[in-house]
Amino acid sequence: MASAEQLVFELTNPDLRENALLDLSKKREIFQDLAPLLWNSFGTIAALLQEIVSIYPFLSPPTLTPGASNRVCNALALLQCVASHPDTRTLFLNAHIPLYLYPFLNTTSKTRPFEYLRLTSLGVIGALVKVDDTEVISFLLSTEIIPLCLRTMEMGSELSKTVATFIVQKILLDDVGLRYICTTAERFFAVGRVLGTMVTTLAEQPSSRLLKHIIRCYLRLSDNARACDALRNCLPEMLRDGTFNNCLRDDATTKRWLQQLLHNVSGGNRVPPPQSLAGLEHLLG
């Protein structure tokens, strides 16, 4: 079996790169400290970025082939490894590498190559937010990550929707993220509208995993007094009337979250919403 060092070295050779990408992506869990090796090896990150940029021309019009999608997703899997590692995460952010993935998240084709591309790209962002780090959240909020996640939450596959909703959830769980979303009516409305649409869809096509993240997003929004006031009148009725009782039957944690959410929006002494959030109930209703 080729060593990690040998495979990483082969990434810089265009003739050997495709097989090296495949081998490394398959074995990235067994190679210890692969992320620092990828980051610190001469030309390696440049080679991975070259793989990403090379398929931009196939995004619009959508002509990405399954083989090209698989190849770039192997490169993305290695970037996810770098994004996950504590020694390389900050370096990864400081180089603004997540921005190279945003064109993939901006695609709308529902064919398998594009869905796989979006899902793998979301996996890189998901790896960044998995560790609670305000620096990561602040960086992402300075970019277009919220609109891109909302787009996937509306039109992606169930798995892509779940990862995108998880990313939004992790952003909301950070105080900086919650404050950002609740600062303006437009941001709150954008998130609330997509969450509401997803709840309606889940009533017809249940997914307990996706519902769990949606409820957690709503519960976190209810921690903000102004957002909680807006949610009183615009929280989907299906979350109140027992529609999802069967779906949540075996999930005690999510049932507890839903009960807390309903308690939060049903009463308590909340300050009146400021003018910036006035009218949200009508918009989201």
Automatic annotation (TrEMBL):
Which superkingdom?
Eukaryota
Q: Which InterPro entries match?
A: ARM-like, ARM-type_fold, CNOT9
Alphabetical GO CC annotations of the entry are: CCR4-NOT complex
SUPFAM superfamilies recorded for this chain? Answer: ARM repeat (SSF48371)
Among the Pfam families in the record, one is Rcd1
GO biological process terms held by the UniProt record:
mRNA catabolic process
Protein family membership: Belongs to the CNOT9 family.
Q: What is this protein called?
A: Ccr4-not transcription complex subunit
Please tell me the species this chain comes from.
Thalictrum thalictroides (Rue-anemone)
